[in-house]
Amino acid sequence: MPNYQANVSVRLRPSVLDPAGEATRAAAKRLGVDGIKKLRIGKSVSLELVAPNESEARKRVELLADRLLANPVIEDWTMELKPAP
Amino acid sequence: MPNYQANVSVRLRPSVLDPAGEATRAAAKRLGVDGIKKLRIGKSVSLELVAPNESEARKRVELLADRLLANPVIEDWTMELKPAP
C-alpha cells in the first residue's frame, strides 16, 4: 500500500485568547525585536501513514484531526496531504 | 511601514523522542484509524509584523525563532514569510 505524508495545522480560533502567544510577544519586545503586532501559537502535527489510496488517506487524517488532534470548540485545523517520496 | 505575515514551524529533531505524539498514535489506533506509521507533534507560530522591508522582517523573525520560539538543542524550525495582503 502506498505511503502518504500529512501535516495538520491546528490553530486557536480567532475569538479565543492566547495567553502563551501574548507572553511570547511581550518577551519578543524585551528581546529587542520590535514591530510584532500579532503572535499566536498553534500545533503542527506531521504524520506518515499507509492507505489504499489518497482519498482514503485523506479521510483517515480528517477523522483524526476532528476527533483527536483539534478541539473544535476552540480550534480550527487545516491539512496538507501528499504521497511520500 | 509594510506588514508581513510569517509562520514558524517548530519540530522536534528526529533523534528526540516524542511521548505526546506516541500517545496520540496509540489513541488513533484505539479510535479505529489504522495505518498511522509516524506521528509527531510540533508547534506552529503565526506572526504579523511591521518592518521597513522584507529582509529586515526576515531577520527579525529568524532572531525570534532562534532565541525564543525553538529550543535549538532539541528542535529545528523552518519559516515562511510573505507580505500581508
In a nutshell, what does this entry contain?
Two copies of one chain form a homodimer. Chain A has 85 residues and is of the alpha+beta class.
Straight-line distance between termini of chain A: 14 Å
Tell me the radius of gyration of chain A.
Answer: 17 Å
Number of domains of chain A: 1
In DSSP terms (H or I, runs of 4 or more residues), the helix count of chain A works out at 2
| Number of DSSP strand runs of chain A | 3
Oligomer: homodimer
Mean pLDDT of chain A: 95
For this structure, the CATH topology of chain A is Mth169, Chain: A
| CATH homologous superfamily identity of chain A | Phosphoribosylformylglycinamidine synthase subunit PurS
Task: Indicate the low-confidence ranges of chain A by residue numbers.
Answer: none
CATH architecture of chain A: 2-Layer Sandwich
Largest sheet of chain A: 3 strands, antiparallel
Order of helices and strands of chain A: EHEHE
CATH level 1 class label of chain A: Alpha Beta
Q: What is the general shape of chain A?
A: elongated
Structural class of chain A: alpha+beta
* Spatial strand sequence of the major β-sheet of chain A: 2-1-3
